[in-house]
Every structure is written in structure tokens, then in C-alpha cells.
Specification:
With 176 residues, the chain is of the alpha/beta class. The protein has a single domain (3-148), classed as Rossmann fold (3-Layer(aba) Sandwich). It is 60% helix and 10% strand. It contains eleven helices and five strands, in the order H-E-H-H-E-H-H-E-H-H-E-H-E-H-H-H. A five-stranded parallel sheet has the order 3-2-1-4-5. Strand 4, helix 8 and strand 5 (130-131) form a beta-alpha-beta unit. Helix 2 packs across helix 5, helix 6 crosses helix 7 and helix 7 packs parallel to helix 8 (111-123). The longest helix is centred in the C-terminal third of the chain and has 14 residues, at 148-161. The termini are far apart.
Length: 176
């Protein structure tokens, strides 16, 4: 499989994105996405709240996401370079390392981590495609796996009860 095909098909998710879906109990949406989602073991370790952990384990059993250990020397090297200054969490570092090494898309919401990931990609002359939580939802809408009204209900739930607060009030506005 070519790196470009792998990038289209596989998405490595950071904790921030997973928690957005775990909070509203919609990990099933990752399973409906055209891409295949993975989490590193470091990302999984950052899911510590009991209800979220239970939902994550259910998503693993249901096949909505898979979990992988990073052990390839290139990934470990990238991980250590990213961790050296200590500004990013281990989950972010491991997700970035896997995305860069394997040519996967990176699902992440943290702006500081995104900037660092893009810097690392540029240093290695690698392409890195970033997708945020709202981008995942938009892809689901565009491919008929999610209705706009349902997505907007999720948006209201995120805004009212969680830290994830995008700067728009309806996914319909993003589709225009």
C-alpha cells in the first residue's frame, strides 16, 4: 500500500479528539467514518475517567478503533525528539510520531501540538494531514453517515457540557 493510500485510509487519533467523542458517547461515529482510526497505547493511557475508559474499551471491542503500541525505532526517535522540550504530552507525541512515520492522517485539536507536528514534518520533508474533531464530523456528514441536525445536536452538547467549543453554531455553515 502506498503512503498516500495509507494516509487516506488510516487516522491516528490524539486523546483530545477521542475524548470529544467519548464525552458524548459517540465513538460509533469513528467506526462509520471512511477512514480507520487507531490510538497509540500512550493515548489510551491518557483516558483515565472511568466512564470514558469504559466507553473507549467498548469502542475497541466493537472495532470502532484499534490500539497500537509504538515500538518502531523511527517512531521512538520522533517521540523522543518531541518529548525532549517537554511541552507536549506523551499521547500527542506518540500520535504525531505514528502519523509522521506511517503516513497516516493525524486527528488532533491542540493548536500547540499541531504547530509542533507540522514543524517536525517539515524537518523530515514529510507530508502530514491534520484533521480536527469538526473535520471528522464534516466528513461524516459529506459521506451520508451523519445528518447535519444530529451533528448540530452534538455541537450543542459539546458547547454546553465540555471544553470543546468550536467557533461556529452549525455544521451547515461549514458546508456552504
Amino acid at each position: 500500500m502506498s503512503r498516500s493510500a495509507a494516509r487516506r485510509l488510516r487516522i491516528v487519533a490524539d486523546t483530545s479528539v477521542l475524548i470529544n467523542f467519548l464525552r458524548i458517547d459517540r465513538m460509533d461515529l469513528l467506526g462509520m467514518h471512511r477512514g480507520s482510526f487507531i490510538a497509540t497505547d500512550h493515548v489510551a493511557d491518557e483516558i483515565t475517567r472511568p466512564l470514558q475508559r469504559e466507553r473507549y474499551e467498548h469502542a475497541l471491542r466493537a472495532g470502532h478503533i484499534t490500539e497500537e503500541h509504538i515500538a518502531e525505532p523511527v517512531e521512538v526517535d520522533i517521540f523522543l525528539r518531541l518529548r525532549d522540550p517537554g511541552r507536549l504530552g506523551v499521547g500527542e507525541c506518540s500520535a504525531i510520531a505514528v502519523a509522521l512515520n506511517r503516513g497516516y492522517r493525524l486527528a488532533i485539536d491542540n493548536n500547540k501540538a499541531i504547530r509542533r507536528a507540522l514543524e517536525e514534518a517539515e524537518l523530515g520533508a514529510l507530508k502530514l494531514e491534520i484533521v480536527r474533531t469538526e473535520g471528522i464530523v464534516l466528513e461524516l456528514i459529506r459521506h451520508g453517515a451523519l445528518m447535519i441536525e444530529t451533528a448540530d445536536e452534538m455541537l450543542v452538547g459539546w458547547a454546553a457540557n465540555h471544553r470543546f467549543k468550536p467557533g461556529f453554531s452549525s455544521f451547515r455553515a461549514l458546508l456552504s
